[in-house]
Amino acid sequence: MKRLYRIALSSAALLALFSASAEVPVSYYQSVNGLADSALKTALSKLIYNHQEVSSYNNLPDYFKKTDAYVSGGVQYWWDMYSNIPVATNITFGRYMNREHSFPKSWWGGSEATPAYVDLFNLYPSEAKANQAKSNYPLGEVSTSTFDNGVVKIGYAVTGQGGGSSHVFEPNEEYKGDFARTYFYMVTCYQSLTWTPKYMYMLQQDTFPTLKSWATDLLSTWALEDTVSQKEIDRNEAVYKIQNNRNPFIDYPDLCEYIWGNKKGVKFNTGSISDPVGDPELLTPVQDTALDFPQTAVGKPVTARLYFAGHNLKGNLSLAITGADKAMFSIESKTLSSTLVNADGGTSIAVTYSPTAIGKHTARLIVSDGGLVGSRGVILNAECLETPVLSPIIATEATDITADSYTANWGIVKFKIIVCRIFWGISLNFLLLKRSPFCRIIVVCQVPNHRCIKIGGDALYGDLLNILVAVF
Predict the structure, then answer these.
(1) Sign of CA dihedral 91, 83, 123, 286
(2) Is 374 left (phi over 0), alpha (psi -120 to 50) or beta?
(3) Could you give the CA distance from residue 125 to residue 23 in angstroms, rounded to a whole number?
(4) Domains identified in the chain and CATH numbers
(5) What pLDDT digit, counting tens, does each position of 282-325 carry?
(6) pTM for this prediction
């Protein structure tokens, strides 16, 4: 199978990429012991929701190199669960590879304000055509396919599945458990999100059980038949080091049965309740967690939050910033109450980057005291770019005036305004390229009683539109 093939040819590379222990941290799940059903699901949500967000959606490929890559013949490739086309990690995302929300973002309305938008437990590198074919269809088993690349299928669902969707997405057998555990994570971590009504194929609007019965039956079957692989274990550890949270359905494969399956009503026990209860433990951040800041400019400070969670810590944690660029970073407090860190859900502090020079800057945040033995370091990464200078454009008198066009003169840039009447079904890009390879839309005028076109797309939504086109 493909999974075995990749593991065999890249075991050394995986050891280099994933150096963290695969053992579940002691006491990480202490707060969920002895709970069942909705109480268990809600406790898990509180545990994993507060986590370290990645720096930005655009930077996801940099994180994927740590979570979803393998090496063959000295070349690093994306580990793609949507296709078996080998794509090297040095390509630019967009044309060949996409940042794929396996649990579609449209299901919660696409908001970027929620951590779900950049949660690595839901995001994977995906071959572009397979991702586009998947669209936002629910998971399911395909009876008749409309897309099949040998790894994934999209098509009409078998009887009883699909939740009213026209199509479903079926992954390869070796990855069905991966997708099931991803969906279990999402409906647990983000159980309080408001779902988009027209996309509630698998969902219902509540915190428990959140999944419709047909969906729980399907996902539970997939999770039990496709057991947790070494790939998932390694990825769980890699994401933990980045986000400081874990996917509990990977750590405890039968956990889904306690929430949705045949163990409902049975109290869940991680087996760690006999662990020492008096030892101070800092669960997050883990050693060498990287706190990445968005790019900014001199005079434009940016702030990121660092999450803390622990058990049995005493007194206060001490925080200090060290390193050559330490003067460009600051924290809101040099101490952090252990009471807050020990509480369910933990707490967070604000770390601010205030650059005084252009370039990349790094420092370390050192965490100590609170009863801990030794200290823990968090890497602070940031970059300051040159501030762009925009020059004003001055309009001058129009020339070459005709009945349907004229040349507008704006400083040193000249462009022609063309009024186009476009009927439904015509490719916008094709029409503009026939006029000039340098066409740009600057204004779209909607004809009364007709829908407007979708900017950036190829097809028009209106029946008849007037387009103002700038030809440079």
Answers:
(1) negative
(2) left
(3) 26
(4) 2-137+172-259 (no CATH), 281-385 (2.60.40.10), 395-471 (no CATH)
(5) 999 999 999 999 999 999 999 999 999 998 999 899 999 999 99
(6) 0.73
